[in-house]
Design a protein that fits this description.
With 217 residues, the chain is an alpha/beta fold. It is built from eight helices and eight strands; from the N terminus they run E-H-E-H-H-H-E-H-E-H-E-E-E-H-E-H. One of its GO terms (cellular component) is cytoplasm.
Length: 217
């Protein structure tokens, strides 16, 4: 079972990825992880990637795809894999299709965890942190037991990280919507796309994904 997991930041991909990889015993392949491994192991593609990173340049699609192709040839992908963070554009999607054909590791399905950006804005911009001890809270899901007082140290000063601030979160989601939309259209045309409502309880989302994957088996 060869899968690509999609969803905007905060949609719950990490939680569902854990469920999928544990239940189906397939590796979770995140582009960040395989880049770091390729660079650490000084593979030919890893060295190429490092040369661009050292200059502050974006790693070209052909190098990224080469690192993914190397990873998909490893023995632990024989029974399947779960891709996360790749492909990121149509050129990479086309290249993945070619790699899959060459390695007999074609995608079985694309699972998209769909949550409205407005909901995700609340999820992602609600986090705040105790300035004294670093304890983390959320205005919707995890408020201090006593308003304005840290449960851990009793401090009264809280702050938000810059990447949790509403304007930053909104822009981050906008960029991801623009990036994901062509891919969703592409995989819809390829008859691989399965969309799950991510604005439900975690067990419900898990159950729906499981039903989709059982139908693929």
């Amino acid at each position: 079972m060869n899968l690509f997991l999609m969803g905007l930041p905060g949609a719950g991909k990490g939680t569902q990825a854990e469920f999928i990889t544990e239940r189906y015993q397939i590796p979770h392949i995140s582009t960040g992880d395989i880049f770091r491994a390729a660079i650490k192991n000084q593979t030919p593609m890893g060295l190429k990637a490092q040369s661009y990173i050292d200059k502050g340049d974006l790693v070209p699609d052909d190098v990224t795809c080469g690192i993914v192709a190397d990873r998909l040839q490893q023995a632990d992908t024989a029974n399947g894999y779960l891709l996360d963070g790749f492909p990121r554009n149509l050129a990479q999607a086309e290249q993945l299709k070619l790699i899959g054909t060459q390695l007999n590791r074609q995608l079985s399905a694309v699972i998209n965890i769909d949550v409205a950006p407005s909901v995700l804005e609340e999820r992602l911009s609600g986090r705040f942190i105790c300035k004294n001890c670093g304890a983390t809270y959320h205005k919707l899901y995890n408020q201090p037991k006593v308003a304005g007082t840290c449960d851990v140290c009793g401090g009264h000063v809280f702050y938000q990280r810059s990447d949790d601030k509403p304007a930053t979160v909104k822009n981050r989601l906008k960029v991801n919507v623009e990036m994901n939309t062509p891919l969703l259209d592409y995989y819809q045309t390829e008859h691989l796309l399965h969309t799950v409502n991510g604005d439900q309880a975690i067990p419900t989302v898990t159950k729906e994904i499981n039903q989709i994957l059982n139908n693929l088996s």
